[in-house]
Design brief:
Number of helices: 13
Low-confidence stretches: 17-32
Distance between the termini: 41 Å
Oligomer: single chain
Strand content: 15-25%
Helix content: 40-55%
Order of helices and strands: HEHEHEHEEHEHEHEHEHEHHHH
Mean pLDDT: 90
Shape: globular
Structural class: alpha/beta
Length: 331
């Protein structure tokens, strides 16, 4: 009896040792990239306007990259937004960029220079379309914008792309039926009620520039209804990347007063080119995921970055370096 128990005990010890070696091996495999000499050199990251979420996210990501890759210089390039960012990466003016999926698809469908070289690194978070008016405005729907002074974003921005699509879906010609302006999040809020009747913004929730204005001066959000999003889906092209959703009541509590706002969202992607060094891209992908919580303390929407969803960079295929990272952490 004692011999049998001894054999059972030895088997348990052996199984425990094997499990321990497997766990240690997995840990060493996970830590292996950090034991390598980190990539060095200079890369450029195209972000957005200074008051927008893209720029803030880029600044915080650069801090994380400098911690893990101290010999890598990361240069941030401000831009009008998504459309300019896609073009910069495709043409080699930037190595990486943050952009919305609809802007990527629009660039690809127009068969512009370098479109076939674009690759995905990570899906980051969703942008929410925010149509803003003064609290006492008589504008209650997108259709009410006819004849109004409306900011639709800078020419190369993702906001401009979305605003034009939304207006057309509501039967409004952006060039003929409104008085458009190119104000963005940096100037639009300050001109609301003083030269502007409404402005469009598309960004993560909450956007600091808009949150500050909502707390100081007050504003109201105009709903973008599900039937309008359905109308967008009936169009061809990049509109399939829009999804109907609600802006949660916690986004801008002073202005929303406990109510959600029907709107639409589009996913943001971190993109690069196929010829970017795979080892650099693997390191960068890992740091994007690793720094989620730290960046999320300052950019709330960044808390949604997750390894389970980051791999879905449609309409772009994953870059080889990013794919290598996701395979290494696949459960």
């Amino acid at each position: 009896m004692s011999n049998a128990l001894s054999r059972i005990g030895r088997r348990r010890v052996l199984r425990g040792a094997v499990a321990g070696f497997v766990a240690l091996g997995l840990l060493l495999w996970w830590l292996a990239p950090w034991s390598e000499e980190p990539p060095r050199g200079t890369v450029t990251l195209s972000t957005g306007t200074r008051a927008g979420v893209y720029q803030k996210y880029g600044e915080l990501l650069r801090t994380s990259l400098s911690k893990h890759m101290p010999d890598l210089e990361v240069r941030l390039l401000t831009s009008d937004g998504s459309q300019e960012n896609v073009r910069r990466v495709a043409t080699g003016e930037a190595d990486f960029a943050i952009t919305a999926a609809d802007a990527v698809e629009t660039y690809r469908l127009s068969d512009q220079r370098g479109a076939d070289q674009l690759r995905g690194v990570a899906r980051l978070y969703d942008d929410y379309v925010q149509l803003v008016v003064p609290p006492g405005s008589d504008i209650r729907s997108v259709a009410d914008l006819r004849g109004k002074r409306v900011a639709i974003g800078p020419p190369k921005s993702g906001v401009r792309l979305i605003a034009n699509q939304v207006l057309r879906a509501a039967g409004i010609d952006p060039e003929q039926d409104i008085r458009p302006s190119a104000d963005g999040i940096d100037t639009g809020p300050g001109r609301l009620g003083h030269g502007l009747d409404a402005f469009f913004w598309s960004g993560g929730l909450p956007t600091d520039g808009l949150r500050t204005f909502s707390e100081d001066s007050g504003l109201r959000f105009v709903p973008i209804t599900a039937d309008l999003v359905a109308q967008l889906h009936r169009q061809s092209g990049a509109t399939r990347y829009y999804r109907a959703t609600n802006m949660p009541e916690s986004a801008y509590p002073r202005s929303q007063r406990g109510a959600t706002v029907p709107t639409m969202a589009v996913s943001n992607l971190l993109i690069t080119r196929t010829d970017t060094d795979p080892r650099l891209t693997e390191w960068l992908t890992r740091i994007v995921l690793k720094s989620r919580d730290r960046i999320g303390k300052n950019v709330h929407s960044a808390q949604l970055v997750d390894v389970r969803t980051a791999i879905y960079t449609d309409p772009l295929r994953l870059h080889d370096g990013a794919r290598r990272y996701y395979r290494s952490v696949k459960p």
